Amino acid sequence: MKRDPLHLNPAGSEFPLILGRDVSGVIVETGLDVSYFKPGDEVCAAVPPWKPGTLAEFVVASANEVAQKPKALSHSQAAALPFVALSTWSALVNTGGLRKDNCRGKRVLILGGSGGIGTFAIQLLKAWGAHVTATCTANAFSFLKDLGADHVVDYQAQSVEKQLKEQELFDFVLDNVGGHTEKWALNLLKPWSGATYVTLVTPFMLNVDRLGVADGMFRSGATVGSKILKHLSRGVHYRWALFIPSGPSLDEIMELVDERKIQPIVEQIFPFSEVPQAFLKMEGGHARGKTVISRD
Ligand SMILES: NC(=O)c1ccc[n+]([C@@H]2O[C@H](COP(=O)([O-])OP(=O)(O)OC[C@H]3O[C@@H](n4cnc5c(N)ncnc54)[C@H](OP(=O)(O)O)[C@@H]3O)[C@@H](O)[C@H]2O)c1
Fold this sequence. Notes:
Elements (H helix, E strand, L loop, with lengths): L21 E5 L15 E5 L19 E3 L6 H4 L3 H14 L11 E5 L4 H12 L3 E6 L4 H7 L3 E4 L5 H6 L6 E4 L5 H5 L10 E4 L4 H8 L1 H20 L4 E4 L6 H12 L7 E6 L3 H9 L6 E5 L2
NADP nicotinamide-adenine-dinucleotide phosphate binds next to helix 2, helix 3 and strand 5.
């Protein structure tokens, strides 16, 4: 519905679909109403799920999805930020209510600290003065400590739940892992204190794919609603977060990059000719930051 609201494409013409949600590049042309950007500006953006295609040579984005690229970053570095940065922003700020001025000293647990979201979230929360505990495998310990994590927990060594129960309770949990984590992670929050659990791993897209837009959204609403009520009765907040495209939020994030409080974590750069290998690498899991496609 979102990709083709006027039903201009014949049925079944969705493919080939151009992949890619992050982009960093140079503006070649702007719409008549656009004044904030001009041709020649170096910008970056993350586009919404209904109009992917940033692996193409040219990308059309709405002005409110775009931000100025920090001058100190290369395009490959800048392209590693928008999607994970805005997904994290949606989870922590829009959904979880965390901000620069209310984070200091808060105890935050990040489940899944070593991937794209985790490595960005650690840096943002540390820039805002939170105390950050993150889960990862032992081989990512020093990586996450270098990013600023105060405490790291090996989720493979023994029961991660048991290890985390030995810690002081948390004010906030950001869940990038999902599945079984929901069964125990909310018990790690301080009850009746406004503590919040936000997960980025939700069945929302799966429901929409399986059931269609209306039924999928209804099913998702019913599921999240019942969970919110169940956990509220135990004194903690339960939330789902979804990526939201936003140039203005990206501008705020890029200020932290300019101040060198956040750096893009690029694990590997593939040339455009090796796009399939890049996707195979991602499918293999065990990310340590972001995989980037370069046009060169
Ligand atoms: N709702 C949304 O709009 C939205 C937006 C962005 C992302 N997401 C979701 O958020 C999740 C994280 O995204 P991402 O981009 O950070 O993924 P990613 O870059 O692939 O990273 C996942 C990380 O989690 C680690 N990991 C795997 N199992 C773990 C466990 N049980 N405990 C702790 N760490 C574990 C992996 O490393 P090892 O396997 O080596 O431990 C890897 O470093 C994904 O499920 C993604 O689909 C949702």
